[in-house]
Amino acid sequence: MATRKAAAKPNVSADELKQYYHDMLLIRRFEEKAGQLYGMGLIGGFCHLYIGQEAVVVGLEAAAEEGDKRVTSYRDHGHMLACGMDPNGVMAELTGREGGYSKGKGGSMHMFSKEKHFYGGHGIVGAQVPIGAGLAFADKYLDNKRVTFAYFGDGAANQGQVYETFNMAALWKLPVIFVIENNQYAMGTAQKRSTSSAELYKRGEAYGIPGEQVDGMDVLAVKAAGEKAIAHCRAGDGPYILEVKTYRYRGHSMSDPAKYRTREEVQNMREKHDPIEAVRQMLLTGEHATEDDLKAIDKTIKEIVNASAEFSKESPEPALEELWTDIYAEVAPQEQDA
Ligand SMILES: Cc1ncc(C[n+]2csc(CCOP(=O)(O)OP(=O)(O)O)c2C)c(N)n1
Ligand SMILES: [Mg+2]
């Protein structure tokens, strides 16, 4: 049932291709800027960058529709930008400022947007997986044909709660896509050192959940696989697993010296498999864009990212009284709806 064969690649227009280039580059430049601000001491605590994995979220968001939901781990800035959250609000949250999505009180791992159906940002490895199934349960109950993307890593894929969730999601035919972002490492542990069965897309076989392995450095392959998975979920056929093979170029977090892998390994991925460079080449060789067109996109992105850093520096720190707010819900959701 599980398949390694990728879905057929979709035909995309030049404009769509340019959009994917734009969206992936925005994530990369944003993350580079976040890395700089961290180095300057403007971002504190943990900060996990998404550089190298951009095609995963951009490909899946290209397949998603308005109203679909997403939930992920701590490596979450790319997911936020890809679903349309405001770079100013994300950067200001990273720097702990009032203008941030959680008013500066959540930081890198704890941001949410009801408007964009982004449900976090979770620091506990794997905790977002049952939450994703819960979101899908609500959609099934409301019969609204929405789909939830529950993203997690190759390390998280070995957790018990993932399999409890698979069981329930399959039993109740929940419209949830389990997206395993297999970047081949869980902190400093290579997948082959920690995982007995490396083919993660087959992990749902015992529950009858179909799975597929996808090249996560190829945005079009990710989009095609996403469309297939979404069609399956929207048709009411239950959950789907996508194992997306990807790679993170930076350390696990900003404090990781990454001594567990060679410089050559990283260099090889950057030079031969970079997802942004691949789309850049497609645009140029297909004559869909000129060097100047791409330079204009690069310039726009630089402006957006610089503006987000400026916004973050200018936004004040949260007032002391904010320590006492947003701890408990003021009104229970049932009462709110009544
Ligand atoms: C329950 C729990 N155990 C351990 C940790 C510490 N920890 C944080 S990230 C991580 C590795 C997870 O790796 P993976 O799922 O592959 O995601 P990636 O970081 O590669 O995106 C670990 C062990 C944690 N946050 N939560
Ligand atoms: Mg990993």
Fold and architecture overview:
There is one protein chain. The chain is an alpha/beta fold and 338 residues long. It has helices at residues 14-39, 54-63, 77-82, 87-94, 128-142, 160-171, 191-194, 219-234, 263-272, 275-285, 291-314, 333-337, and strands at residues 69-71, 148-153, 176-182, 185-186, 189-190, 211-215, 240-245. The protein starts with 13 loop residues before the first helix and ends with a helix. The relative contact order is 0.18. Bound molecules: thiamine diphosphate and magnesium ion.
Which structural category do the helix and sheet elements fall into?
Answer: alpha/beta
| Total number of domains | 1
Strand content: 5-15%
CATH architecture annotation name: 3-Layer(aba) Sandwich
Number of strands: 7
Number of helices: 12
Level-1 CATH class name: Alpha Beta
| H-E string | HHEHHHEHEEEHEHEHHHH
Largest sheet: 5 strands, parallel
Radius of gyration, whole Å: 20 Å
Helix content: 40-55%
Q: How would you describe the shape? A: globular
Tell me the span between the first and last alpha carbons.
45 Å
Which residue ranges are poorly predicted, with pLDDT under 50 across at least 5 consecutive positions? none
